[in-house]
Amino acid sequence: MRFVLIHLCMMMVLLPGCNNQENVHTVVSRQAQTYQLATVQASTGAKDEYVRTGRVISDQRLALSSQLTGYIREIRVQEGENIQQGQVLVRLDASQVEGAIQQAGAELQAAQAAVTDARTDAEHLQLLFSQGHAADNELRKAQLRQDTALQTLHQAQAVLTTAKAQRQYSEIRSPLTGVVVDRQLRVGDLAAPNNPILTIEANQQWLFSTSLPEQQLANVSVGMPVTVYVDAVPHAIIGHVARIVPSQDTSTHTYQVKISLPAQPNQRLLSGMFGRAVFTLGQTAEVIVPKSALIERGGLQGVFVVDNQHKVQFRWLRLGREWPQQVAVNAGLSAGEQVVAIASPQLRDGDRVVALPVPR
């Protein structure tokens, strides 16, 4: 019995020890790594840029209508078709115009015959009057008929000239080199003044149309350079403010600004393309870091800060306004601190960084 009690006591002592051995966890710590990464200094004094969205528009957009009232006989172009200045785009039924020309021509011939007769009568009476065989009032009446016939002739000539001028309006020619963007009427429709048939745009000179709030309008002037980013063009375009429309959009309290764009020989701009205009308004006092340095964790963003021993420490940031490539830091970082320029998910606090130049 004594032996059993001793044995049980020994088991009670040993069992807790065995249980502790089973729950021992080996903690493996990650050793600091060294990476060759580009670093950049958080700085102030960067360009104070104001970004507005907009779209590409043509500098010339025209709605073509007829100066005559008549049925459309032929439309020679389709939407999207390139056109040349002077090219015939539309032909109208010119039967009424041709009829008016013929009528005016007949009236002109009659007026010419009347002038010939009146001149002959006036010359004959002038001869008789000089011989004393005609009265003075008869000569004056003959001269009056001659003058009236001449006036009628001039009127007939004017009517014929006007009728012939109308003939050219039976054809609508393009006033510019560009592209057809819309067809409002079809063959057989009745064309009339102020009733557009086609809408065309010049494709030689493009504008970028955007708007500015009234608070920023004083910082922008005609001729100032503006950097424009169009989604369809892989590089920035340097344009210049061409026009500031001095009429406010009362719903948005903004003013329309149009920026002239240089020709892009290798990139075809099209009307309606979306983009962003970046207005440089001076220099900002905010701390700026590149967007490429940001790392998102749990919906928040931060950067890896490099200390004097070239070790990194992750730091949360409160961010402010953004630019296409940069972002302002409202809290969490001071000017002059070094940060990893291109975020690396492999980095951990305490890792070392061998600085490389920032890639251009």
UniProtKB/TrEMBL annotation:
- According to the entry, every stretch annotated as the CzcB-like barrel-sandwich hybrid domain falls at 64-200
**Highest taxon, organism lineage:** Bacteria
The chain positions of domain CusB-like beta-barrel read 210-279
User: What are the GO cellular component annotations?
Assistant: efflux pump complex
Domain Multidrug resistance protein MdtA-like C-terminal permuted SH3, first and last residues per copy: 287-340
**Per the similarity annotation, which family is this?**
Belongs to the membrane fusion protein (MFP) (TC 8.A.1) family.
- The protein here is known as RND family efflux transporter MFP subunit
The record lists the organism as Fluviicoccus keumensis
